[in-house]
Structures are given as structure tokens and as C-alpha cells.
Amino acid sequence: MDFTFHALAGAAISKELTGKYLIEASIFSILPDVGAIPYKYFKAMSCSKKSLGRFLKDFTMPNKNGNFFGNLDKLVYRSTHSLFSLIPIGLLAFIVSRSYWWILVLSYISHFIIDAFTHEKEFSQMPLYPLLNWSIKGKGWSVNKKVFILSWAGLIFALLLQQGIS
Q1: In the 8-state DSSP scheme, what is residue 35?
Q2: 19 conformational bin, left if phi > 0, alpha if psi -120 to 50, beta if neither
Q3: Tens digit of pLDDT for each residue in 104-118?
């Protein structure tokens, strides 16, 4: 899913477990997508330069073949979306907040769970990368309207339910 979805999921997790929204939880929930920066760079370089409108359309639409542009963007993306990234993230979470570090780690893990159901093809979740190339085959949120709508509906329902409970 997109940054906003992951950030709201992190906020919901922190609210549920602490009774308050932690901005740190939202940040940790989007950290795996830092690995998408090289991909976004290469995508920007491949977009049409004819007009701003055409560039934005190319940039926001899914990659036509659903693949990475090269080995660098594939390596960085898969590394930040691997469970092995939990070790440095866990240490960072402990440095950021000794009282809520585990909530930050749970927010980070929520990203993997969400992506497992909402990513496909090359972007499928590979939780044990680089040891195993096994992946969880989800359905791409950016190309499947049902996945997009159901994911957002579920998150909005959870947030509304959470507000009603508090």
C-alpha cells in the first residue's frame, strides 16, 4: 500500500496499544518504503518529459511490466522489506523510545503484513530475503481496484471502531 495507508496503520497500532497516537509509530510503519527510493528515482528518469501532466501520470501509474528497473532498486527494496531488517530497526526503535520500542517494531512489522496481501510480481513480500527467494503472492493494490478499496475500507472501519471504543 501507499505511505499514507502505512502511516495510518502505525497510528492505529499505537493508539490501540498506548491509548494515544505516536508519530514515531507512523514513521516506523513507513520505514520499509525507504527502500523504494532508488526505484522511484529510476521511475522518474523513465517518465515522459513532454509535460508535467504526462510526467505525473507516468510517475503515479504502476510500472507497465511490474518489474524493477535494475539490480540496485531490487536489492534495496527487498532488503528493507525483509524480516532481517528487524535487527537494526529494533535497535533504532529502542534508541528512539525505551518505553514504546516494541510498538515501533510492531508498526514496522505491520508494513510487511499489509504488503504481503497488497503486492504482487516482483514486489511480492520476500520475508526471508536474501537467504530465500520465497515470496508471498498478494494482489497488487495499485492495479487491482478491489484490493485498494477493500484495504482502505478495512483501515477506515478499524479507525472508526477504535474511535468509538475510546
Answers
A1: G
A2: left
A3: 999 999 999 999 999
